[in-house]
Amino acid sequence: MDFWTLANALATGLLTGLVYGLSALGLSVIFGVIRIVNFAHGEIMVMGMFFALVMFRWLGLDPMLSVPLAAAILFVFGYALQSTVISRVAHLPDHMQFLLLAAIAVMIVNGSLLIFGPDPQAINISYSFDSFDIGENLIIDKTRAYAAIAAVAISGLLLGFFKYSRTGKAIRACADNYLGAQVVGLKVDHLYALTFGIGAACLGAAGCVLLLLIEVHPYLAPGYTLLAFVIVIIGGLGSMTGALVGGILIGMSEALAAIVLQPSMKSAFSFGLLILVLLLRPQGLMGKSVK
Amino acid sequence: MMGVNFLADLTIKGKAGLLLILAILISLPFWSSSYIISVATITLYLAILGQSWNLMLGFAGLLSLGHALFVGISAYLAAYVFSVLGLPPVISVFPAVLLAILMGMLIGYLGFRFSIGGVYFALLTIAFAELVRISVDHMGFIGGTEGLFLPVSEGDRKGVDLINLRGHPFMFYYLAMVLAFLTLAGCRTLLKSKLGYYWQAIRDDQDAAQALGINVFRYKMYAVIYSSGIAGVAGVFYAFYQNSLFPESVFGIERSIEVTLGPIVGGVGSLFGPVLGAFILTPLGEGLTELIDFLKNSGIIDPKLKLNGLKLLIWGLVVSLIVLFKPRGIWPWLSDKLGFCRTEGD
After folding, report:
1. Of A230, A274, A279, the CB nearest to B114
2. Hey, of A30, A85, A110, which one would you mutate to test binding to chain B, going by the most B CBs within 10 A of its CB?
3. pLDDT higher than 90, residue B93
4. Between 20 and 30 A from B112 (CA), which of A54, A109, B184, B291?
5. Which CATH number fits the domain that encloses residue B209?
6. Average pLDDT over residues A252-258
7. Which residues of B touch A (CB under 8 A)?
8. ipTM higher than 0.90?
9. Cβ contact A106–B312 (<8 Å)
C-alpha cells in the first residue's frame, strides 16, 4: 500500500467522519440533557434522507438546499414527540424507554417501507462525479467535500447556540441540575422538548447531507443507530465536542480498516474500539468522569 | 417438590386457568393446522428465551441487548458438529451450552469487573453480539454469509428421533413445550431460593446489598451464567428446528430486541409475564399477516396494493400503547383482574 492510497483513504474517512459527527451530535444532545437513549436515532435521520429525496424528485432541489427545510420539519416532529409521548415515560426504568423508542423506530422503518418500498434509491446531481484534485494524487469527491463543509457549519452553529444563547444556557442548566433548573423557574418540559427538537433537526440536516454520499433505503436506519452509539460512547456521552471527535475517529478508522482489512470488516473495528473504550475509559475520550 | 412449589402462589382460579391453557396446548396438534403448530412452536421458543432474558433483567437488574449472541453461538456449534462429525444434539448440547455460558461469563466478567452498569452494560452486550456476527460473516468453515445448513433427508420429517432431533413438526412442538415448562419451573425455583433473593436485593439496591455482605460480583455472574445457559439450550433447539443458520438472522440486533419484547410486554420480573408476552406478540404478528391477506382476498382492500411494512407498523403501535398505558406489563394487571395470584405480579 503506497502513501497516496493511505492519504486518500484518510481524507475520505475524515470528511465522512464529520458527517457522522453531526449525526452523533443529535444523539449526544438528547442523551446529555434529557437522559433518554434515543434508539430511533438512525430512523429519524433516514426520515431526513427520504425528505431530501422527495424534494429532489419533485422540485429538483439540491439536498444541500433541503437542509433548512428538513431541519425545521424534524424539529417540529422531535418537539411533538418529546412533549406528547416520550415525556410520559421519563419516570419509567431504562428498558421501558428503550422499548418505546425501539417501537417508534420499527414504526418509522416500516412506514417508510410502505411509502418508498425496499429498494435503494440514489440521486444524481450535476456534480455527483466531480472531484477536487489537490496536487496530482489526492482526489476528493465534490459531494463529500460539500457534505463535510455543511456538517462542520451546522455543528459550529449548534455549539455556538449552546454556549452563548440564553436558551442554550438554560438547556445546559437543565442538564447540569434538573431540580435547580426548576427552582429558578425554567420551564423544563418546554426546554426538554426543545432539546429533542434540536437533536432531531440535527438528524434531518445530517440526513440531507448524507444523501449526497449514499443511497437511501428503509433498512439503512438500524445500522446508523448503532454507529451513532459507538461514536457517542467513544467520544463521551453528553459531550458535544466528544461526538464530533468520535465521528472523525470512527470515519477514519473505518476507512483505514476498509483498505487494511476488508470493507466488510470495518464495523468490527468500530465495535472492538467501543468495547475497549467501555472497559478502559467508560466516560469516553472527552467525557467528564461521573463517579 | 418443584412442581408443588410452583403452583403455591396461584389461587384456585389461577390453577384452573393454568390447567385449561395446558389442556389447550397439549391437544393443539389434534385439532389445529400445521401452520398454527409452527406459530405455537415459535411462541414457546420465544417464551423460553424471554424467561432467560427476564432472569437477568427482572431478577438481577442486568439489561442485556445481546441475547441473540448466546443463542447463536450455541446453535452454530451444535449445527456444525452435527453436519461435520454427525454428533447428535443430545451430546453436543453440553459443549454448546458451555460455550454460551463462557461467552456470558466473559461479558459479565468484563462488565462487572470494570463496573459498567445500566445502559452501558446493554451497549457492551450489543457490541459483543455485533462483533461475533461480523466474525461469523467471515468464517468460511461455518458457511460465512452463505449460511450453515443441516442435512435433512426426506424421511426426517416423519419419524420421531429425539437423539438426533430429527422428526415431525409435532415433535418439535412438544419438545418446546417441555423445555418451556422446565424453564418456567426452574426460574421459579431460582427466584424463591436464597440466590433469587440475593438477586432481587442487588436489583433493588446494589450498594445496600453489598453493605449487607452479598458478594455482588459473584451473584451477578450467576445470573449471567443461568441466563446464557438457558439461551444456549434454546439455541440448540433453534438450530435443529430451523435447519439453516445465517449470521444476520441469528446474531442480528433485531433478534436480541425480539427476545426482550415478550417479557417487557408481559411484565418484567414476573414468572408468567415472559410466557404471556410471547403468547400475545407472536400470534399478534401472525394474525395481522393473516388479516391483511384476508382483506386482500375478499376485495375489501385492493389486492394489488403493496402493503409491506403495514404489519410491523401496527405491531409497533401496539407495543407503544402497551408501554404508555400498561408500563408494568400485562401479566401483573391481568392476574390482579382475574384473581390468579396470591402475591401480586408473581
Report:
1. A279
2. A110
3. yes
4. B184
5. 1.10.3470
6. 86
7. 57, 63, 65, 110, 114, 116, 118-120, 122-124, 126-128, 130-131, 134-135, 137-138, 253-254, 257, 260-261, 264, 268, 306-313, 315-317, 319-320, 323-324, 327
8. no
9. yes
Domain that residue B42 falls in: 2-338
Which residues lie closer than 8 Å to B129 by C-beta, 6 or more apart?
B65, B66, B68, B69, B72, B251, B253, B256
A132 within domain boundaries: no
* Structural domain includes residue A158: yes
Q: Tell me whether residue B343 is in a domain.
A: no
pTM (two decimals): 0.85
Buried b (16+ CB within 10 A) or exposed e, A35-66: bbbbbbbbbbbbbbbbbbbebbeeeeebbbeb
CB contact under 8 A, B313 and A110: yes
CA distances to A53, A124, B244 from A214, in Å = 11, 11, 32
| Residue B167 bridge partners (DSSP) | B160
Domain presence at residue A100: yes
Residue A230: list chain B partners with CB under 8 A: 127
Closest CA in chain B for residue A276:
B124
Domain that holds residue A96: 12-117+140-221
Shortest distance, CA B322 to any CA of chain A (angstroms): 9
| Count of domains forming chain B | 1
What proportion of chain B, given as a percentage, has pLDDT over 70? 96
Whether the pLDDT of residue A222 is over 80: the answer is yes
Angstrom distance (rounded) from CA B247 to CA B138: 10
Among B62, B31, B55, B81, CA closest to B124: B62
pLDDT (tens digit, 9 = 90+) per residue, B24-50?
888 888 888 888 899 999 999 999 999
Say if A60 falls within a structural domain: yes
pLDDT band at B56 (very low <50, low <70, confident <90, very high): very high
Surface of A (153-212) touching B: CB under 8 A: none
Residue B95 located in a structural domain: yes
| Residues of B with Cβ-Cβ distance to A94 under 8 angstroms | 63, 118-119, 122
Mutate to test the interface with A, among B257, B258, B259, B270 (most CBs of A within 10 A): B257
